[in-house]
Amino acid sequence: MPTEREATPTRRTGAPPPATRAQALVVAALRLVDEGGLEGLTMRRLADTCNLQLPAIYRVFGNKGALLDQMAEKILSGALAERRDEPWEADVALLARQLRRALLAQRDGARIVGGSYAAQHYSLAFADRLIAAMQRAGLQGVSALWATSSLFSYVLGEALEQQGHGEGEIGRPDAAVSGAAYPHLFATPVEEIADFDGRFEFGLGLFVAGLRERAAGEGAGPGGDGRG
Question: Which of 9, 102, 158, 210 has a Cα at 20 to 30 A from 115?
Answer without folding.
Answer: 210
